[in-house]
Write a structure and sequence with these properties.
single chain; 8-stranded parallel sheet; 17% strand; binds (4S)-2,6-dioxohexahydropyrimidine-4-carboxylic acid; binds zinc ion
Length: 350
């Protein structure tokens, strides 16, 4: 095969993943472990993973279900609350229990009720993290109900992120799952200590996909998909080679019955198809030579970790849609496929 339809890269990591707990965790873990070496595990469980002790216990529950021989490594995060203790947070970092802290504005998304209402109240924690070199991962949306849902990220940047970056000049920050041209521009201008993850779904759907011929709950996530011009800005950022942008799937499993409901949950389960989707996007953009940077090098560099030594091979080949996953309670879990189908697949995962 010619180089343009087969590509071997260092094994990627997922810098933004929801693994949940219990039966759901056991169902989804294999899909991530198959393609990714490491993953930043988000802490929005019920109750949230707030302390070093919580993170250690959660890591053990994850480790108990990691498929043997996969070598998959969960990188734990702590859920920031207005009661978080700076010493506990930085001790978790020092002791290798948690690599980062996640900031959810209260009410912004799934299980964010214990999140932060007033950023001034977490100032001591942020100062301690700044000193310790511990990154802050941000769900960057305002929760003010008067702000249009499609504007919540841009307004968060304007009202909060700009000040947070100025108030904490040494803090490493990741603007998670960025979805707008505004975010891309802000990250580009920040010059290094601000990174951003980009999901596969935000690269292949815009907001029309949520309403294509009817309401499409499996295309509903937060931050919500935006206008086409924002999707194009995300694609340009992802393939640009700028090390501030890296892979984070935001794979977020919810049972089908919770998605297809009068008030459906936000979240797209894409762990099985994420890498193929990214490869397809980079191929379409004529930038396959930059996929390894985005998927396997920029993230480790930001977090101060070594890239993985193992390799993974992708190839251009029409792939069938992934079947829904069966859940332990008899329900199902829908797997995201790009609207036009998938034309790449993981050929060898090592
Ligand atoms: O769509 C989303 N789902 N966005 C988030 O921020 C959280 C996630 C989840 O945990 O379900
Ligand atoms: Zn998420």
């Amino acid at each position: 095969m010619s180089p343009s339809n087969r590509l071997t890269i260092r094994r990627p990591d997922d810098w933004h993943l929801h693994l949940r707990d219990g039966d759901m965790l056991a169902t989804v873990i294999g899909d991530s472990a198959r393609h990714f070496a490491r993953a930043i595990v988000m802490p929005n469980l019920v109750p949230p993973v707030r302390t070093a002790k919580d993170a250690l216990a959660y890591r053990r529950r994850i480790e108990a279900v990691i498929p043997e021989g996969s070598g998959f490594q969960p990188l734990m995060t702590l859920y920031l609350t207005e009661d978080s203790d700076p010493d506990d947070v930085t001790a978790a970092h020092r002791d290798g229990v948690a690599v980062a802290v996640k900031l959810y504005p209260a009410g912004a998304t799934t299980n964010s009720d214990s999140g932060v209402r007033d950023l001034d109240r977490v100032r001591p924690v942020l100062e301690a993290m700044e000193k310790a070199g511990m990154p802050l991962l941000i769900h960057g949306e305002v929760t003010d109900p008067d702000i249009d849902i499609f504007d919540r990220e841009a307004v968060f940047i304007e009202r909060h992120l700009t000040r947070l970056m100025a108030d904490h000049p040494g803090l490493k920050v990741v603007l998670e799952h960025c979805t707008t041209a505004d975010a891309v521009g802000f990250v580009e201008a920040a010059g290094g200590r601000l990174g951003a993850t980009i999901t596969p779904h935000h690269l292949v759907i815009n907001r029309n996909a949520i309403f294509q011929g009817g309401i499409r709950p499996h295309h509903y996530c937060l931050p919500i998909a935006k206008r086409e011009r924002h999707r194009l800005a995300l694609r340009r950022a992802a393939v640009s080679g700028n090390p501030a942008f890296f892979l984070g799937t935001d794979s977020a499993p919810h049972p089908i019955h919770a998605k297809e409901a009068a008030c459906g949950c936000a979240g797209i389960y894409n762990a099985p198809t994420a890498l193929a989707t990214y490869a397809q996007v980079f191929a379409e953009e004529g930038a396959l030579d930059r996929l390894e940077g985005f998927a396997s090098l920029h993230g480790p560099a930001f977090y101060g970790l070594a890239p993985n030594a193992a390799r993974l091979t992708l190839e251009a080949a029409p792939a069938d849609a992934e079947p829904d996953r069966a859940l332990a309670d008899g329900g199902g879990l829908h797997v995201f496929t790009p609207p036009g189908g998938l034309s790449w697949r993981v050929a060898e995962a090592g």
